[in-house]
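Wait, can you check?
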Amino acid sequence: MNITIIGCWGGFPKAGEATSGYMVEHDGFKLLLECGSGVVSLMQQKYDLGEIDAVILTHYHYDHMCDIGPLQYARQIKTQLGQINKSLPIYAPRGEFFNLLKWEDYAYGQDFDEKSILTIGPFEITFIKNVHPVEAYSIKVKCSGKVFSFTSDTAYFEGLENFFDKSDILISECSFYSHMDGTKAGHLNSSQAGMLAENAHVKKLVLTHLPHFGNLEDLVAQAKEQYSGEIVLAEKFMELKI
């Protein structure tokens, strides 16, 4: 598996960058995980939008899905120009925006919940329901004996460590510094991200959903107090290989 970080900011994108977006690839199959603000623009620096095989949205907060509309327009235009001839499956919880995922012959919605086990291209994908103000899910992607996991947005809760157990890479949200409590907002702080990685015995921790304040290197230092493995800060176009 190859994971390319398109965007890693929480809430709104830093100038010239994007909020949540990750391209997961194996054997030529391209799965876009999240489609937040700025993702469609940035993605085109590395990919043709017609090459995307599937999309997963973990929840309906704008920093995770607001570029899904521009992506659907792109699919419509590229289809009308004869550049592609297939409809794009968009996997998402059945909720407030689900019906908007259907876009004539250009895109369609497929719903999932906590019990779903999806086979999307070469990937087997499972879910656990998060603690967040709206329905949201963490996901685990298995492929060729390797495991990539992603927290999406969530407060810490019992069972999360077991779900991520022995992941090769965990991309974890890290919205707050260790002295801040993100529980009410449904987010993790740096110490909790480190503790999650340690308790789940993951091989590598990547901090994402980054705050627009403070010294971001402090997030790494604080997570390292809880986790003995490798930690990196997510950044635009970072590539992770498993």
In short: The chain is about 20% helix and 30% strand. The chain has one domain: 2-241.
